[in-house]
Description:
The structure holds two protein chains of two kinds. Chain A has one domain (60-283): Orthogonal Bundle (MetI-like fold). In chain A, 72% of the residues lie in helices and 1% in strands. Chain A contains 13 helices and two strands. Chain A has helices at residues 8-34, 52-58, 61-93, 99-111, 114-125, 131-138, 153-180, 185-193, 198-209, 211-226, 230-236, 245-255, 259-283; strands spanning 37-38, 47-48. In chain A, strand 1 and strand 2 form a beta hairpin. Chain B has three domains: 1-34; 39-146 and 314-385, Periplasmic binding protein-like II (D-Maltodextrin-Binding Protein, domain 2, 3-Layer(aba) Sandwich), CATH 3.40.190.10; 148-308 and 399-436, Periplasmic binding protein-like II (D-Maltodextrin-Binding Protein, domain 2), CATH 3.40.190. Chain B is built from 18 helices and 13 strands. In chain B, helix 14 crosses helix 15 (363-372) and helix 15 (363-372) runs antiparallel to helix 16 (378-386). In chain B, the strands form four sheets. Chain B has a five-stranded mixed beta sheet with strand order 2-1-3-12-6. Chain B has a four-stranded mixed beta sheet with strand order 8-9-7-10, sandwiched between helices. Chains A and B meet through helix 12 of A and helix 4, helix 5, helix 11 and helix 17 of B.
Amino acid sequence: MKKKTDFLPYALISPLIIFIVLLALTPAAFTTIAAFFKVQPLNPPTHFSGLENFRDILHNANVISSLGNTFIYIIIGVTLSTVLGIYFAVILQRRFVGRSILIAVLILPWALPGVVEGILWTGIWDANTGVLNSVLKSMHLITHYQVFLGQHKFLTILAIEVVQVWQITPLSTILILAVLQNIPDDLYEAATIDGSNGRKSFRYLTLPLIRPGIAIAVVQSIIATLNIFDQPYILNGAASTANSLAMETYAVSFQNLNFGQGYALSLLITLFTLFISVIVAKFIYKKVEY
Amino acid sequence: MQNAIKISKSQKSIAIVVAVASAFGFASLAAPAKAASPVTISVVLAAPPLPPAMLAEFTKATGINVKWTQVDWDSLQTKIAAGSTANTYYADATDVDWSRVGQLGKLNWFLPMEKYLDTKALATDMPQLSSFTKNGHVVGIPYDASFMVTTVNKALFAKAGITKMPTTIDEYTADLKAVKAKNVVQYPLNIPFAAAEGLSTYWYETTGAFGGHILDAAGKPLFTDPASAGYKAAAWMVNAVKTGLVPPGNINVADSQGQQTLMAKGKVASTFSDYSGNVGSLYDVAASSSVVHQVQYLATPGASGPTSNLGNPDGIGIPVKAKNPAAAAKFISWFTDGKNMADFAGANGTARTWVGYFFPSRLSGIAILNKKGSIIGGDVLAGMLKTSAAVFPQGAPAWYPEFSGAVYTNLHAAAAGTMTVDAAIKAIGAVATKLSSGK
C-alpha cells in the first residue's frame, strides 16, 4: 500500500521556516556578500574590495580596543551569570512559601530593556549623586564620593557587566532549573543511602546531570555579552575604557557611514559567536539519560 | 433551491477578478471613483508631538494630516542613514541636525528646501539658516534657535563676594577659583566629560571663547598648535577637572544630566556651555530646580571680552524618498512660521505650548515672545542670537560625526587621565587631517 505523505507537519513549521529565511538567513547572506565590497556612501562608488574591509578593521585601534573589552565582558558575564544561575536554580528547586512569586520577581530584570537598566543603574553608580556612594558614605566606608565608571578600565567594565549579569542571570537560572527539575529524586535518595552528603551529591550528581542546561545557559550568556551595547552606551558613553564590539560596529556603520567595514565586523562577530558556541556545546553539553 | 440566483460563468469570472483586485489593494478597479482622500504626512523628530490644537489647526487650513513619530536622537540618525542608504521611504519630514548638514548635503539624502520655500526671504529673519546650507542648497530649516550660552548662579557667585560678572575667560576662571576657595560649593564648574556629543560642543564653544575656530575652510585642524585657541580650550577644560573646579564624577556626566543634577540643584555655580533657554525651562522651574531665580545668562566670556555664541540648532527637512514632499514643505512652512513658533514657546497659553520647546529660530518669533514678556531672559538671548555664529563657518564637514567621535573620546580620555592633553589633541588632529584628505 502506497504511504500517503502527511503535509501537516510541514505546513505547521512553514511560518517558522519563512521567518528564519526572510529575517535571519537572507540578511546574513547579504551581509556576508557585502562584507567583501567597499560600501561608503560618502566615498562612492561601491565596488568589490576582497579582504580590504577585514584588513582595515583589524588595523583599527578602536576595534582592537573594543575586542579586548568585549573579551573581559564575556569572561565576567559568563562566569557570574552561570555561577549565579546554578546557585539560584538549586535554591529555587526546593519548595518553599513564596517560591512562585520569587521566580516571577527574578524574571523582571530579564524582561527590562537594556537601555532602561542602564538608566536605572546610572542612579546607582553615579559619582556625583549615586545611591552607592551615598550608602557607602553614610556607613563611613568612604570619606568622599568615588568614581566607579570611566576612570579605571577594569572597574568600569566590571560595573557595567554587573548590570548585564543582573539582566541575563534570570534566563540562566530558568534554563538550569528546567533541567534540574527533571532529575529523579530516586537518584538523590540512592546517593544518601550510599553515604553521600549534600556537597558530594551536588558535585557528583547535580552538576553532571545539569550539564545540558549549563551549556545552553553559557551559550546564551556568550551571545548576550558578545553583543553588549545598551549598558556600556548608557553608562559610559562611547569612551574607549569600556566600548564593546557591538558599539564599534554601530560607530563604523552609522557614525562613519562605512557600511562595508560594518558588514565585515558583523560577519566576524557572527562567526566568532558560532565558533565559541560550538566549542561550548562540544565541551560542556552532554546528553543525559536517567 | 427554487429562488437561488443564477450566476453565469462570465459573471463568476468578473467576481473573481474583482475579489482578487480588491485583495491586492486595487479597490479602485471595483469601486466607483471617489474624491481624493486627504493627504497624510509622516513627521519623525526627536521631540514630543506638537499640541493637538495646533496640529488640528494646520489640518483644517491645509487638509493635510500629520502623523507624528518621536524617536530618540541617536536612533533617528541611524534611521535616516539606514533608510537613505536603502533608498526607501521612512518619513516625509524629519530631523536635520546642524552637525549633519555637511553629510546630508553631500549625500543628497534631502531635497533642496529652496525649491519649496522662499529661503532667501527666510534668511533675513532666521540668522542660523546659513548653518543649514551646503553647496548652495538649503538642506533643512532650523525650527529652534538652540545655541550655547554661559549660565551663572549669581547667588553662589555673590556668596563668594562676586557681584561684577566676568567678561573674559581669565576673569571667569578667577571667579570660579574664588567660589571654590571660599567653599561656597566644592566644585563650581560643570563640564560634561562623558564621551558624548555634549563634550564636543562644549569644546567648540570654549575654543570660540579663546578666540579661534576648530577647522579651516579645507577642514584641516586649527587646534594642534599649543598656542591655538582649540588647544588652550582643551587644556583649560582638562585643567579644570584636575584642579578641582569640576566634580571628579563629571568624567561620566552627559550635558543634560549635568544641567539637571548639578546646575539645577545648586551643586555647581556655572556651566560655561549651557543650552539657550535652560533658565526658563529648567533652572526657574521649581519642580526640577532648587535654584529658582538664581541663574542668569552671561555673555560668553572671551579672550579679551564677551564673544559670540556658537549655534547648534535643530532643523527639519524633506528626505528624497518622501511620498508627499509638497505637503511636507507646507508643513515645514507652517511649523517654522514666526507666530506659530512663538505659540510653541508659550506666547498664547498652555494649549498651544509645545513641551520642551523654548526658543524660536526666527527673530520675529522672539519679538512676539519678548513683547508678551513670556520668555525669561528673552532680551539677553535675542541679543545673543543676533550675534551667534556657526561652529564651522564653512559648514559642518561631511565627515563631522566621525570627527566628533574622535573629539569626545580623546577629550574624555584626557580628563580621565589615561592620556595627556597633548596626545588627545594630536589624536583628534590626526583624525581631522585624515578625513579632510579624503582618506
